[in-house]
Amino acid sequence: ALDDKLIPAKLGVTLSGGMGHRYGYIDLALTDERAAFPVIIEEMRKRNVAKRSWLLFHEPELGDEWIGIWPETPPPPRSV
After folding, report:
1. What are the helix (H) ranges across 1-80?
2. Tens digits of residue pLDDT in 38-58
3. What's the pTM value of the predicted model, to 2 decimals?
C-alpha cells in the first residue's frame, strides 16, 4: 500500500518488512523525507495501525529522532 503512494510521487519505495517479538517493521528508502512523511502517516492512519507506531531512522545521527503516527503516540521504547 505504501508503494502505491510513494512510487508514483517519486518519494521512495519499501525495501522489506518483518515481524519481531512485539512490533512489525517496514524498511523504506525515501528520496524526499519531508514530503514522504505526511503520505506515509496518512496511509498508516487509514489502515488504523496501532497507537504505538512510529517512523524511526537508521541514520546514527537521527537515532534519537522519531515521528508518531498518531498525535497521542507515546515515545518508542529505548534500548538499554
Report:
1. 2-6, 33-46
2. 999 999 999 999 999 999 998
3. 0.88
CA atoms of 38 and 32, how far apart (whole Å): 11
Phi, psi at residue 75, to the nearest 5°?
Answer: -60, 150
Round to whole Å and give the CA distance between 70 and 51.
Answer: 6
Q: What are the beta bridge partners of residue 13? A: 29
| DSSP state for residue 7 in the 8-state scheme | T
Report how far residue 80's alpha carbon sits from residue 63's, in angstroms, rounded to the nearest whole number. Answer: 14
CA distances from 3 to 15, 22, 26, 28 (A): 10, 24, 11, 10
**Which element (helix H / strand E) includes 13?**
strand 12-19
